[in-house]
Amino acid sequence: MRDDHGGLVVLGTSSEVGKTLVTIAICRWLRDQGVKTTPFKSLSMQPGEALYPTPPDGAIHYHQAYQAVAAGVRPHGDLNPIALWVTPEGVATSIRGRRSDYWLSQPRHVCTDRGRAEIMKAYRGLAERYDFVVSEGCGSPVELNLKDRDVTNLWLADAVDAPCVLVCSTVHTGVFASLVGTLELMAPAERRRVVGFVVNRFAGDPRDFDSAVPILEQRSSLPCLGVIPHFDRAPLLTSVPTGPEQVLERAHSPELDAEIAAWTAHVSAHVALDRLMEGVHAYAAVADGAA
Questions:
Q1: Is the separation of the CB atoms in 219 and 188 below 8 Å?
Q2: Residue percentage of the chain with pLDDT more than 70
Q3: How far apart are CA 104 and CA 255, in angstroms?
Q4: Which residue in 74, 208, 217, 251 has the most C-beta neighbors within 10 A?
Q5: Membrane-crossing residues (predicted)?
Q6: Tens digit of each residue's pLDDT (9 = 90 or more) over 91-104
Q7: Beta strands of the chain (E only): which ranges?
Q8: Model confidence, pTM
Q9: How many CA atoms lie within 13 A of 266 on its CB side?
């Protein structure tokens, strides 16, 4: 069943391809278009304590706080309903803004079921208040041994019947294998959700990648929405804060907002975001017609 709202899931071929930053750019671009937008990430995992505190005693990942700044919304627990981070005592957990460390001590299926329930409560609450939800996935969407426990990627896209955009990166060689391989490992119904792909972090002149684009499009049967050149003018966005105090300082600083604006301008100059939204709307029209 489709939720009656606009939404998109930003998937990546792996970790570190730039899902977070692409989500930031989409959130800011939509906000600038006058669309009431919110970010969302079902579950985050943080090796340290670079967190944005949420009342009464929880936290969200700093990435989701920065995405909230991009969208022009107040950071709060429902933007990142399950946040995990490492402490000297072990792994800490925040569920929808409240500390809930006992969650991981439960049997695996209980964690998954309860986690999915909390995620859907948070998502549906956001969908009621905003016109568009931009959800960031986590890692790879096709870790086949983990699909029964997925709470962030294709499970979420299916649960809310949202289309997806797939982000890949040229930082590490193998962009052809990572993009085509990811799509090949999706079930047919999952693959039909993907409306296009974005190649991120290209070093050099993007025109040097021109010969690769038609090969990727032919192999994937998807449109390339853009090739984003490397961007090195956002030190606050791309460096890890030392702790909650620095996260708060950055999230409320004009310098971070200026970096978000510059990054969004860079992305929109190289990615057809209007074409991405056309794909989102076309998917929604087909899904509504099939309902």
A1: no
A2: 98
A3: 37
A4: 251
A5: none
A6: 999 999 999 987 88
A7: 6-12, 37-40, 43-46, 51-54, 58-61, 82-87, 90-95, 98-99, 132-136, 164-169, 194-202, 224-229
A8: 0.96
A9: 20
